[in-house]
Amino acid sequence: MAVAASRRGISSRARENLAGWLFVAPVVVILSVFMLLPILMALWVSMTDWNGQGSPFKASVPFVGAENYTRLFTEDGLTRQDFMTSLRNNVYYVIIVVPCQTLLALGLAMIVNNRLLRGKSFFRAAFFFPSVTSSVAISVVFLFVFANSGAVNSLLSVFGIDGPQWFSDSRGTLHLLLSGLGLVDVDAPPAALLATGPFGLSWWDWLSGPSVAMTTIIMLVVWTTSGTFMLMFLAALQDIPVTLEEAAKLDGAGNRGVFRYVTLPMLKPTLFLVLTLGLISTWQVFDQIYVMSQGNPAKTTLTPAFLSYQTAFRSFEYGSGTAISFVLFAIIVVLTLIQRWVMRDRKV
Amino acid sequence: MKRSTLRNAAVLSAASATLLTAAACGSGFEEPGAAPASQAPASAGPADLQILIGSSGEAETGAVNAAASAWATKTGDKATVTPAQDLGQQLGQAFAGDSPPDVFYVDASRFADYASVGALEPYGDKISNPTDFYQSLRDTFTYDGKYYCAPKDFSTLALVINSDLWAKGGLTDADVPTTWEQLTAVSEKLKAKDITALALGDTRDRVGAFMVGAGGWIVSADGKTATADSPENLTALSYVQGLMKDKYAQTPKQLDAGWAGEAFGKGKAAMTVEGNWIKGAMTNDFPDVKYTVHEMPAGPKGKGTLSFTNCWGISAKSKFKEQAVSFVEAMTTVEQQMAFAQAFGVMPSRQSAKDAYTAAFPDDAPFVNGADYAHGPVNAPKMDSVLADFDTGIQQLASIDPKTLLARVQKNTTAALGN
């Protein structure tokens, strides 16, 4: 065999390889032209002071090295302050949205998967509906729903609650919570927290929690994304053999036991997928911010993705803008790796 | 087996999704741009001008279209007018893609950004009788000592008073405030009658008028040094803060309105500080509300207001600069400016059109008179984020120390101008 192959000058393995590459060539070409190349170009822009005039690859474009990056972290100024504010906002956003949407999606999937439920397809469609609607359209609807005299505040006033001015309320919910508990005074925050803090933002600012305006966007996103993830959970749930559950029940496991020791472990790969996708999409939140708040009020809905757009296309600081997007990229990769490590299969 | 496939899929999709975003963020340099200019060689023959406008509505688009085709017929050139969805972004992309439109609106607040990167052709003095344009507008479009582009039209802020609420507060025409002290005094009287005195937008574009009245501004006249923490600015902000703390002045949000004009139209405040665009809003949305317009009350250093304006920018890369200048010339004649004024209610930027304008719109005299003491927007590059941060501070003015706020603006402005 080997002799025959070498006589033809090329081994069968190499031929297989060649054929393989030929088959994937279109994708490789498309990916490199439309993804890899633009990314490398953006990487170059992030190391220049390009002002958006003409090509960024001319000799006249000043090269500044890592300055755009260091300005985000080490230089005391507006750039760092805005970037850190956007990171803070997004961290709170991720911390709330990812668990909420995952739990909601899992809950919905369990309900729809229930064998006793009637009108299953209706509920499945109803829960999935927000996910297939354009995010811009839904955002606009939420603008109306949460307007000062909108549906939500009308509903609240039925119960005698004076609803907040959702989209113009920049107060942090954690601040409100702490002052509600009588721990701090929002108008006169503790000096110890105000005085210092990492990266030019005081501890008091870091600990603000999502602003009231941000919570509306959080609600919107949890609601719209849980449908997609419900579908993933549903597929995984229907993949679990009924015999496994029955066997567990025969062995004396209750409903809770079956869920904890049979269903959940079987769902682990899907859970990982949902958490990863959730983590990525929440770090990249843009459409909702662009349509609903543009970073206002008082920068409390500013996110790195929106800040990157704003810096590049509104202030013409393309270098700084692309640097922000690369830092965001790094954050997402690192967090995904950490998550992968946490959820790895442990050998008992 | 299945587990690891899924995991791989997850990681792969993670990677590709992020890469996509990064690529999206970096887009805009190889794109032809939203308004591709004609790439005809700069040879003889008729020009094909691409004109990108940030239109306020159909009335404006129609009027500019009509004027453009009249010019085209007269000169034998071609002119294509495109109303932009998002002028700033479309221009940014077009510049980056090396294919900007020949003529386009340039907002005064963004002018310095464009001028500083060399995107604009400094043709200002080629327009006939250039000193006829109001000096404050010429200053607005001057960068580094060069007068770049001809102001299209302008608006100023003035004090607008609701006649019915004014009477209800027991006030007469003689009580119309001409100084800050009088403004406080009438506010007190209105407050006593349970009427909110003033609806004031909480941005630099309204509060800034008080800074001008106090003799201050964010940057020096040449736009090279930061002057935000001057005592004049402190006087202005402290005065506005006082109005807010005493509940004399309320922000549109506090009055449950989108902007001060809406709050004013709904009768939620007796006065407001707005520009001449409020006329259109009142006619369309609140036709029954009677109101009068007066010049801004004078501060310690005299009257002060802000002007808002656009200029006819010509791209430095245009292949038809001569024709473009001729086009702008046609757009800025007194007759044409009056035609625009009739069509969509803007004020002519030429002083020689002032009489014709005040004759046609006598109620607008306070707005036009404002041109004499108006200050244009900050015309220094890279100030966008600094000013946005200043706005954030003004939104919290009721609860923060004006001195701290001005110090913050000073620090940021110094950093931005130092670049």
Automatic annotation (TrEMBL), chain A:
Subcellular location: Cell membrane
Pfam families: BPD_transp_1
Membrane topology: Multi-pass membrane protein
Transmembrane segments: 21-45, 91-113, 125-147, 212-237, 258-283, 318-338
Sequence similarity: Belongs to the binding-protein-dependent transport system permease family.
Keywords: Cell membrane, Membrane, Transmembrane, Transmembrane helix, Transport
GO BP terms: transmembrane transport
Keyword hit for Cell membrane: yes
Source organism of the structure: Acrocarpospora corrugata
One GO term describing the cellular component: plasma membrane
Cross-referenced SUPFAM superfamilies: MetI-like
Protein name as annotated: Sugar ABC transporter permease
CDD domains registered for this protein in UniProt: TM_PBP2
PANTHER family: ABC TRANSPORTER PERMEASE PROTEIN, INNER MEMBRANE ABC TRANSPORTER PERMEASE PROTEIN YCJO
Span of domain ABC transmembrane type-1: 87-339
Automatic annotation (TrEMBL), chain B:
GO terms, biological process: maltodextrin transmembrane transport; maltose transport
Molecular function (Gene Ontology), one example: maltose binding
Region forming the signal peptide: 1-23
Pfam families hit by this protein: SBP_bac_1
Keyword flag Translocase: no
The keyword Signal belongs to this UniProt entry's keyword annotation: yes
TM regions (residue ranges): none
GO cellular component: ATP-binding cassette (ABC) transporter complex, substrate-binding subunit-containing
Keyword annotations: Signal, Transport
InterPro entries linked: SBP
Gene3D superfamilies on file: Periplasmic binding protein-like II
PROSITE patterns: PROKAR_LIPOPROTEIN
Family: Belongs to the bacterial solute-binding protein 1 family.
The name this protein goes by in its record: ABC transporter substrate-binding protein
Organism: Acrocarpospora corrugata
Upper lineage: Bacteria, Bacillati, Actinomycetota, Actinomycetes, Streptosporangiales
